[in-house]
Request: fold
Amino acid sequence: MKTRNRFAAAVAASALIICCINCSSAYMATLSTALQEMNKQLDATYSTAASAAQINAQTSSTPHIYETPQSPDPGVAIAAVSSSAGKFKGTPYTVLPAGTDGTAGKQATYVAFGDWPQTIKAESVTVDESQSVKVGAHTYFKGSDGAWYMKRTSVFATGAEGPEGYRYSDGTRVRGTKTLYFKVEPIKWRVVTNNYNGSGKKLLLSEYILTNIAYYDCDKDATRFDNVDGTQVYFKLDKNIRRNDDGSYIQHSNYEHSRLRAYLNGLSYLKGDNDGNQAINNEFVGAGFLQTAFTSDMQAGIAVTNVDNSIKSTADILEELSAKEQRFYQGTMYYETGAEHKRVYYPSYLSNNTKDKVFILSRTDVLKSNYGFTPIAPKVTDDNFMDYIKRGEAYSGADLITTYKGLARRVTDFCKANGVNHPVISENSGWYLRTPLMPAFFRGEPKIAQFVAGVNSDAGLEECGVAYDSNGVVPAICVNY
Reply:
């Protein structure tokens, strides 16, 4: 992604290299009682009593950057209500008490809705694997505390350890093991707007990074480009670019046909690999995030949203491209072939609009201050950089870029086990946006990989490789409530 701060771009690029290496009436009465108890938990840490103190103690020398507040997740009270012997009821749409804290402070509105594995099991809890329930793609087991737990093996090899700063909320190191259990807890959302894109529906955005999955299976773009006399561009569409049944081509960064969208909604998609092979993949059909996080009754409360993938959803991307690049980005660049001079178009990076129940935000969405995403100008710029050098004053990578209040997202313990990348000095991680970016074809050799926009761990905007499964996912939904 381009930046108008050249020095910031250079430092940010080096940082990116490092990052990439890597719920009957009785039930409702009980729920009401639980809600009354929520305010008493406002000083508690996220799910585990000692977690925040332990994490902050470990990183006290380096403050977290725009860290999501370690506020109360009132969902702890709901979680106990959501579980009953032999049955998983789930967490119904519940508005959390006024004063609940979160990514946009205590003045915002937060809700609990749906459930997902999040916090590592407390040592005092035992899990009975003879009591299990299948929920979407997950199998949950009953804990001695009455809650449900998911068993998970860390992506690290058995016995191997992640970096020193990679620790679960109970203070233990993230390492490969066969006996990790994660508590299934209510998902906490922030109400971003009551009228998303004129739909009249509330837009909810998860307060945490809940999972990770590659945007697409592969990222190779071996399309050949040749400049002729500096005025004409000829290209050859390589087999590595996917094709629809009608012969039209699809970019790997196309949201409509992405692996990520298929996973979020439980759909099939056209899977490809870096050798140009492709086939319909049905692994997520009926077993995606939607079917796993929400019961059938809850799914009825989620609206089908017209997800805007047009040029309007990309914010100021066109302003950053040359006239020729704009033609490529929008799919209007072509060459003529054959005696009849048939036009062959380069495939647009833009996707068709989609109708989904679950989606991720666009670049335009996260640049809206009325959504609670307030820009914070860089502390260090081209103009004052030498002053910092002369004074010997320290600064961080976040000081070199425009960051956005309200965008930072923490990773859950479950995500850590799944290999979500995050800096060792912070519990925040990067996450995907659905907006495709333009490879720099005319600045030397074409990029091999394709990219989409994303939010980095410092709450700034960045580019993300589409094939990285270590990038976080922050689901968004519109509701009928």
Remarks:
- Residues 1-84 have pLDDT under 50 and may be disordered.
